[in-house]
Design goal:
The structure is a single chain. By secondary structure, the protein is α+β, with helices and mostly antiparallel strands. It contains two helices and seven strands. The strands form two sheets. Strands 6-5-4-1-7 form a five-stranded antiparallel β-sheet, with no helix packed on it. Strands 2-3 form a two-stranded antiparallel sheet. The chain is globular. The termini are far apart. Pfam families: SH3_3. Keywords: Signal. This is SH3b domain-containing protein.
Length: about 100
Amino acid sequence: MLTTRSTRAALGLAAALALTPAVAGATADGPDFYRVTGVAADDMLNLRRGPGTGFEVIVGLPPLREVNLLSREGNGWCLVSLRETPQLQGYVSCRYLGE
């Protein structure tokens, strides 16, 4: 049988755990990094300044290059950063990203 003191401690711990974000839940949404897929071995995926083909190309990403998915736009474009240089961000077509 729990005493009043241990009951309060158990409730406090339960409340603290309920307010703590679950690490497992964060990783269950998808991978931390995605890879460039569906691009020919001798081709590159364009990383652009904005979400569309009319925007300037920043750099070409070769197949299997890992990127961090920052957000998905409603028009099929994804804002990504490069894994090795996260300060470099741009947009790619979401259809060329895979796990």
